[in-house]
């Protein structure tokens, strides 16, 4: 096993602290995004800025750190902190929007993973990652919404879950994905530019 040099060993706590701070900051941004919300009269799913923030976290922070930030956000909400748009604690996670909340983790990971794999094409990678992230959020959200509606005694079909939990948000979430991809791809492109040497 390769030994870790003294410099590398001393830098590990600093790196861990930096990563932790990034995760806490990203989770805090998710909590703020949840506060900017409103309800449409025909669906239990609120309109928030969380789709944008989750995608941006994955694209900018990468798959692992992006997903970790979302896991921290979900854990904070499940522990009772008022970070969710609707309710607190496990009641919110088990409620009609629970699938979307958990879907943020998968979306951040997938968006970041695709952007990482297509790092040589940052604009395309960010756009594809953001689109895939939205699809994952919808799959998780609408699937759990259907389960929740059935458990509540409602007559539910895949179509009704889609109409309530996905269709009303398609347009605005496409705009959020475009915005997240544009911001992230700009940063990725700058990182890939060769530095001028003196």
Structural notes for this entry:
- The chain is mainly α.
- The chain has one domain: Arp2/3 complex 21 kDa subunit ARPC3 (Orthogonal Bundle), CATH 1.10.1760.
- Helices cover 73% and strands 0% of the residues.
Give keywords.
198 residues; mainly alpha; Arp2/3 complex 21 kDa subunit ARPC3; 8 helices; disordered N terminus
Sum this structure up briefly:
The chain has about 200 residues and is an all-alpha fold. It contains eight helices and no strands.
- The shape is globular
- Give the terminus-to-terminus CA distance: 39 Å
How would a textbook summarize the main sheet? none
Gyration radius from CA atoms, angstroms: 19 Å
Structural class by secondary-structure content? mainly alpha
Topology of this structure?
Layout (H helix, E strand, L loop, with lengths): L5 H30 L14 H12 L1 H16 L10 H5 L4 H20 L4 H30 L6 H8 L4 H23 L6
Helix pairs in contact: 1-2, 1-3, 2-3, 2-5, 2-6, 2-8, 3-5, 5-6, 6-7, 6-8
């Amino acid at each position: 096993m390769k030994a870790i040099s003294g410099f590398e060993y001393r830098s590990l706590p600093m790196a861990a602290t930096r990563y932790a701070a990034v995760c806490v900051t990203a989770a805090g941004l998710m909590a703020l995004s949840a506060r900017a919300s409103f309800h449409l009269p025909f669906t239990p799913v609120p309109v928030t800025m969380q789709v944008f923030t989750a995608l941006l976290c994955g694209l900018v922070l990468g798959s692992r750190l992006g997903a970790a930030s979302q896991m921290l956000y979900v854990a904070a909400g499940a522990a009772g902190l008022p970070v969710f748009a609707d309710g607190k604690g496990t009641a919110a996670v088990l409620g009609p929007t629970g699938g979307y909340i958990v879907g943020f983790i998968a979306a951040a990971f997938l968006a970041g993973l695709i952007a990482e794999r297509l790092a040589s094409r940052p604009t395309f990678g960010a756009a594809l990652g953001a689109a895939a992230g939205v699809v994952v959020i919808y799959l998780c959200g609408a699937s759990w919404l259907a389960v929740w509606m059935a458990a509540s005694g409602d007559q539910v079909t895949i179509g009704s879950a889609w109409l309530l939990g996905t269709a009303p948000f398609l347009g605005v979430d496409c705009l959020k994905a475009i915005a997240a991809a544009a911001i992230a791809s700009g940063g990725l492109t700058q990182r890939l530019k060769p530095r001028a040497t003196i």
